[in-house]
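Hey, I'm writing a tutorial for new members on how sequence and structure tokens pair up, and I'd like a real worked example in the thread rather than a made-up one. If someone can provide the structure for the chain below, I'll link this post from the tutorial.
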Amino acid sequence: MFDPTDAPRVFGVPLGVDFPKALVDGLLALHKGQPPEALARVHLIVNTRRMARRIREMFDQGPALLLPRISLVTDLGEDWAMADLPDAVPPLRRRLELLRLVEQLLDQSPDLAPRAALYDLSDSLAGLMDEMHGEGVPPEVIEGLDITDQSGHWERIKAFLGIVRPYFDVGQSEPDVETRQRMVIERLTHQWAETPPDHPIIIAGSTGSRGATQILMQAVAQLPQGAVVFPGFDADMPEDVWQTLETPLTSEDHPQYRFAQFMARLGGHPRDIAPWPWSPAPASLERNKVISLALRPAPVTDEWLRDGPLLPDLTKAMANVTLLEAESTRDEALTIAMRLRKAAEDQTTAALITPDRTLTRQVTALLDRWGIIPDDSAGMPLQLSVPGRFLRHVADLMRNRLTAESLLTLLKHPLTHTGNERGPHLRLTRELELHLRRYGPPFPDAESLTAWAAGRKEDEAEAWVAWIRDCFCGKEVSSAQPLTRLVEDHIALAGRIAQGPEGEGTGTLWEKEAGREALKAVTELQDNAKHGGQLNAPDYANLFNAILGRGEVRNPDTPHPHIRIWGTLEARVQGAELLILAGLNEGSWPEAPKPDPWLNRKLRNEAGLLLPERRIGLSAHDFQQAVTAPEVWLTRSIRSDDAETVVSRWLNRLQNLLDGLPEKGGEDALKAMRARGQHWLALAERLEDPGVATPAKRPAPIPPAAARPKQLSVTEIKTLIRDPYAIYAKHVLRLKPLDPLMKAPDALLRGIVLHKVLEEFIDNSMADPGLLTRDHLITKTETILAENVPWPEVRAMWLARMERVADWVLATEDTRRERGRPTALEEKAKASLPALGFTLTGTADRIDMDETGQLYIYDYKTGAAPTGPQQAEFDKQLLLEAAMAEQFGFGDLAPNKVAGAYYLSLSNDPKEVPAPLADEPVEKIWQEFEALIAAYLDGGKSFPSRRAMFTKDMEGNYDQLARFGEWDITDDPEEGPVS
């Protein structure tokens, strides 16, 4: 196939060329006129399955041929010749073993690292061990590094590194994946050295960034019929620039560094890389030169001044490049989605390339509005899939106490109860949710759920709640348990929840592609759990989440044939007419190097390990290949999460180069690139423009007389005065605000608790005067807080508040006892207006009676009490209760004169605020009340929204219904009848 040569055979495909197509075209050209079996003798080794798949697709386009053998670098160990090598230990098993060892080390020496870092340290240590195996670096090299460290930091690091030494001692019998791969390659290269194969072997698409792979590539390049074909080779790099790419510490982040390193280890030079003869011309030779100069190594960027004026016309070079700088990631994603939609409409093959998975998910969601499903190479993370989320929620049952939120999250999950009919299940779930929102408790238990079921009429309610009790209540794991048991209990529980109350099985949990992938991950964990030792529930949940995070699920729907989403690696193996390089900000593309807790850059270089800049260099090479495509978009967001972003170093270099060459049209080219991007941003803005909507008027509905409320409580009279529309919405429309799922420790709950504390405290002290003490008040508060407030920090805070006012409560209680004796607590009453057919209801927190039969009414407030003028005009609760008690009697109490009514404000500044009975006698209050009710029962009276709110920013429960915000309080109400 190849002509004989003594030099290593290394080819390079230029930038801006469809690499797989050029490779296939070359193979066909080399075998033109050859027997059919000649092509079949070729062994083609590629680095990714996606590249292998695309090469096969190109051969499948015809004519009919005997295809070459296509395999991956990682498939070489599956050959029969390698059957005697031991199988690789599963990576999960190795990580679980390291987890136990790191845990034991931390137990023995807690000062080495916090326990919270257990998993991070184990994963990082496993990654270091894989790298040492892959690069052929034994522990002795690490131990032999010359370190002058008086702080003891290096000794702590060596304590951790000592954990991995046993795995090198048993490496040949129980190899890791990387160890076995290196063993395979070393055996293969040794066999080839002794007996070179007589058939062609070609390695294509890899840059040789890993040690074992580079050994293989070097061996293949020196075979009689071997060849290495590099993707994205920069033929425009001058000799002096190649010479600067000799030192990893200063050159590792350059896109062409790996080629220089590869040729140096072969004893050659990058100029010895021959062009692949069958490559078509690049999409733009001019742009290739611009990008090559822009990405020169940092030490020689002064060459811009020398070589910049020699560049071709920059306006032509950048003619098919669009620069989009959006204000936010949302704007960036929307504009990209619009361009992809246009490509789909034009049947243009387009691909979005970015390492930012959040951005790709945003674009995918935005494309859904047009029914476009992109072909996403990465798919969806397994942990975010339907079964992945379900299994994580079930794991949380073992970690945390059951809450109303976690209960309903699982009950509503689409995989729950799928082994039985879901209709009754969903109906009962809805009823239970409404009950929990209205009445609680925030932490449901078996007792509260059983009580709810007892009040239901549905035949299936009892069995359904029994299933909930069995699957959801009391599942917290309080102590460490063997990982095998945790996994077994977790999966069994997930199966019961998925199945439902009847029958055996797991419902549809393991069905469809996502379910099968989840089952594969779970099975792997079950098979290796025996190596994991004991874990507590939080650690297990974190471990399980991390295991799911390694898996991916392809979208089961048929994707659009022309719209794709690729990672940066796919950019070098795919061909598309339009490439959108998105998320070009520092930290995104390139990604920030992960912190290494073990070795710094210098030590890594001395040990022969990979530098942190390696990943940046690979990303730079991916960028260089993608940006030289026929049509390119370069996009970034100026702000992300309310913070300024930093432009990607490569895009920044390109902009600076163009800006600095006005005589070559650089400034004009850059302006044109931005103008093209701005055009699409303007289109996106127009798409999002909601248009001009007519704002709603301030509502003041006039309901028919028959529909108006015939009963209100004394506390609702204040609402009727300040916000009549709220009364209309609640009693005429019968709308009630949906209570939060988790009862919050808000003012309402604090008021309920305070009323209960004082009610029981006063009641106890009446039965036993010796209990009228501070100690009893605090004890009673602690008891009721424990019963009603499930948040420890809130209990502590509210108890502290009671302790602050306890002395004032006891001191003023003596004064209240001098006025009268507590006679009624939480007394309910009604008063009727027969002429109007209206009833007023009320509950007095406390009513005292003196020796003459006069009454004293008290109302507890957790906050500030209303002032006298406020009570006279708006807050008429106490005044109306006094009028009811004096004219109609209050509950079981006969009508009596009210000598006083008081608010007991238990705020940080406690005080007793009297009702202005002298200025507002009960007769006057009642007459005004009757007039108020008569006016609102009149069929012609409207219920305006926010008539007299205390402050203009005071929120009402029905402001959204009234569309407050489209109007303000200066607008006149728009009255209108409703039917």
